[in-house]
Write a structure and sequence with these properties.
The protein is α+β, with helices and mostly antiparallel strands. Helix content is 25%, strand content 34%. The chain has 2 domains: 165 residues, 2,3-Dihydroxybiphenyl 1,2-Dioxygenase, domain 1 (Roll), CATH 3.10.180; 197 residues, 2,3-Dihydroxybiphenyl 1,2-Dioxygenase, domain 1, CATH 3.10.180.10. The two termini are 39 Å apart. The structure holds fe (ii) ion.
């Protein structure tokens, strides 16, 4: 049995109820400099539908917020409307980035109490939000950097998103690209902090350690990182945590931390059932991906064995493949989606594999280093 399968089996030991049951990711909220234009990018390029909005027209005077949805994935793009808003401080410091990883729970009060009791730093006391569609209970705790976890209890609500938001549709035809759900969200933390945050997820949120990668797994001549993956009881939430490891030159994690000015979300992995379609569409619409050299595909068969996809097609689209004991996976990483080299997206298709593409890290790092070289930050 792989360590991952073993860990999954132990996740819900009989007789020990999960003190923080989570139904899935509720939404990911990004603070951005211009939410209106970012919302257009995610609609036109990534195929998200606009579903809800808050702003001046809805009586919201502090910020404007666009809620975008594709299947189970919900992204919220928020921008401040005046210089007094606290959102400005986040933007000045971090640029566009992920502020909230929101978790869908059945009891937001209890989620808050149980985690705060175990040492979480409160970010928002349980708050009831109401409108004509019912009520939502929201609470929040701090995690790494200035990122927060919101607990969203929406069992008594049938509105578009949250009270205060009004339904709003895209004003042009949206063509989805087949994105289904959030597979995992990765955090970058400062050198020496990885274990502290793994422990936070274990102690405060009851998550379990799934996998560890060290610099022997993930290093090139120049760069290295350490990574540990934690997951909640039912396995729906997976948070890999990276920290830089010493290399000859600046690692991509350090570059992120320099530009983000601290710990934060590095990438959001979104799952598809047809990565060839998804990536073809995204490329056609101008989404930029990391380049992987053609030589990557030379020994592909020896590395991953038989796969259902045509290797020439994968090569043309630059899609990466990795295998573990349970199957294989196909993945590809976008370039950062804002000018600072910080947050990016991963497109992933799982064909049995439950791991995270360890076999691709080296090829990928070499690719990222080429980009760093171009940016003069290696
Ligand atoms: Fe990933």
């Amino acid at each position: 049995m792989t360590p991952l399968a073993h860990a999954l089996q132990q996740e819900t030991p009989s007789g020990v109820p999960d003190f923080l049951p989570i139904n899935g990711t509720d939404h990911v909220e990004l603070f951005v400099g211009n939410a209106k234009q970012s919302a257009y990018y995610y609609q036109a390029a990534f195929g998200y539908n606009l579903v809800a909005y808050a702003g001046l027209e809805t009586g919201q005077k502090e910020f404007a917020s666009y809620v975008l949805q594709q299947d189970k994935i919900r992204l919220v793009l928020t921008t401040p409307l005046n210089p007094e808003s606290a959102i400005n401080q986040h933007l000045v410091q971090h640029g566009d980035g992920v502020k909230v990883l929101a978790l869908w729970v059945d009891d937001a009060r209890r989620s808050f109490e149980e985690t705060v009791k175990r040492g979480a730093k409160p970010a928002m006391e349980p708050t009831v939000l109401r409108d004509e569609h019912g009520e939502v209970v929201v609470s929040a705790i701090h995690t790494y950097g200035q990122t927060i976890h919101k607990f969203v209890e929406r069992k008594n609500y049938n509105g578009a998103f949250l009270p205060g938001y009004q339904p709003k549709s895209s004003n042009f035809e949206i063509k989805p690209v087949g994105l289904k759900y959030i597979d995992h969200c990765v955090g970058n933390v400062e050198l020496g902090d990885m274990n502290k945050w793994v422990q936070f997820y274990e102690d405060v949120m009851g998550f379990k350690l799934l996998v560890t990668f060290d610099d022997n797994d993930i290093s090139t001549e120049y760069t290295a990182l350490m990574s540990k993956v934690v997951s909640n009881g039912n396995g729906y939430i997976k948070f890999p945590i990276n920290e830089p490891a010493k290399g000859r030159k600046k690692s991509q994690i350090e570059e992120y931390i320099d530009f983000y000015r601290g710990a934060g979300v590095q990438h959001i992995a979104v799952a598809t059932d047809d990565i060839i379609f998804t990536v073809s569409e995204l490329r056609r619409r101008g989404v930029e991906f990391l380049y992987v050299p053609e030589t990557y595909y030379d020994d592909l068969f020896e590395r991953v064995g038989t796969i259902n996809e045509d290797v020439e097609t994968l090569k043309k689209l630059n899609i990466l493949v990795d295998r573990d004991d349970e199957g294989y996976l196909l993945q590809l990483f976008t370039k950062p989606v804002q000018d600072r080299p910080t947050v990016f997206f991963e497109i992933i298709q799982r064909c049995g594999a439950k791991s995270f593409g360890k076999g691709n890290f080296k090829a990928l790092f070499e690719s990222i280093e080429r980009e760093q070289e171009l940016r003069g930050t290696l």
